[in-house]
Amino acid sequence: MSSMKVCTTNQALSSSLESLKASDSSLGFVPTMGALHQGHVSLIQKAIAENSLVVVSIFVNPTQFDNKSDLETYPQNLNKDIETISAIGSDKIVVYAPSTQDVYKGDLSKENFDFGGLEHQMEGKHRPGHFDGVATVVYKLLQIVRPDMAYFGEKDFQQLQIVKKLVSVIGASINIIGCPIAREPSGLAMSSRNKRLYNNERKHASKIYQILKSVEQKFETVPISDIRKWVQAQFENDPYINLEYFEISEVSTLESAVTIAPNKKYRAFVAVFIRDVRLIDNIALN
Ligand code: AMP
Asked: What predicted TM-score, i.e. pTM, was given to this entire model?
């Protein structure tokens, strides 16, 4: 049996960190909404490699869901998540699995942050209030955990950029580390929501990454407007997948690219629906 510490309150977490944290130690933090998969595990492993102690939070944040049924159907299984984390076999991990009350203290209002426009692109356009909810909970969790380093996946690249901005806006000295996207053998980006796909839908879902790979190939040789049209046509040809948006954007502003500027980095971003399951993915283009 693992002796991994599982704290369900802010207070229990603080006292357990107090007893475990050596004065010169570095504390890593991996926030998650549970339903853990190998993508989460890769973040936890990186945090373990780079810190003397790691807090993994498991908390389905109600304020970041713009869609009620998405929140209600979000997969939750704390015991299974604890098993997944125990299987990593590290004695450096403390799990923080709080109640909504413990995090929000009865006030579920979202703070309104100004992230200089990052929050209005892509996910911000299509999920109103989503990033206010994300930033609100990340801010609260950072205050509770007080880490030196926090790990976020490039799977949610816009979220990663917004969290980096949040930390600079609040003037915290926390290193935000972006981690590569973990994928299924088919190329499908791992996601807790993949559990909701039927087998035939999963097969179609692997097309998302194939299309992104083709976009990577076309970038710098095919005009961006033609790439957009090509991508739209690919998704229109698939009866299982409904494209919500496709964007090629510059990574620091996340503004939609019209032309390619030298010395700038670009990524392609996509959001689709398969039935009512919403999936996002992205890829570096240069
Ligand atoms: P979530 O539980 O979906 O809120 O995700 C928690 C963290 O894991 C976020 O920083 C995500 O970006 C990251 N994450 C989720 N899926 C993946 C993946 N396939 N590869 C890498 N990181 C991921």
From this structure: 0.97
